[in-house]
Amino acid sequence: MLAVTLSLSVNAQSDVEMADTMRSEGKIYVVVSIILIVLAGLIAYLFMMDRKVKKLEDQVAEKKH
C-alpha cells in the first residue's frame, strides 16, 4: 500500500512539472482552448441531432394518427 502511495506521489510531481512548463510557456491556454472548442462543437452537434430526431418523431407520430 505504501509503495502504491509513493508511486502515485512521484507521478503527480512529474505531471505538475510538465504543467508548470506548459503554463510558463503559455501553451496550457492553447490546450485548454482547443478542449473547450471541441466540447462546444460536440454539444452543438448533439443539440442539433436532438432537434432533428424530435422533428422525425413528430412526423412519424402524425402519420400514425
Question: How would you sum up this structure, described in words?
Answer:
There is one protein chain. The protein is mainly alpha-helical. The chain has one domain. It is built from two helices and no strands. The longest helix has 38 residues.
Which helices and strands occur, and which strands form pairs?
Blueprint: H1 2-25, H2 27-64
Task: For the structure shown, list the relevant keywords.
65 residues, 2 helices, mainly alpha, elongated, 0% strand
- Model regions low in confidence, pLDDT < 50 over at least 5 residues: none
The profile of the biggest β sheet is: none
Q: Which whole number gives the mean pLDDT?
A: 84
Radius of gyration, CA atoms, in whole angstroms: 23 Å
Domains counted in the coordinates: how many? 1
As a percent range, the share of helical residues equals over 70%
- How many runs of DSSP E, i.e. beta strands? 0
Distance between the termini: 65 Å
Write down the overall geometry: elongated
The number of helical elements comes to: 2
Order of helical and strand elements: HH
Relative strand content: under 5%
Which structural class do the helices and strands define?
mainly alpha
Question: TL;DR of this structure?
Answer:
This protein has 65 residues and is mostly helical.
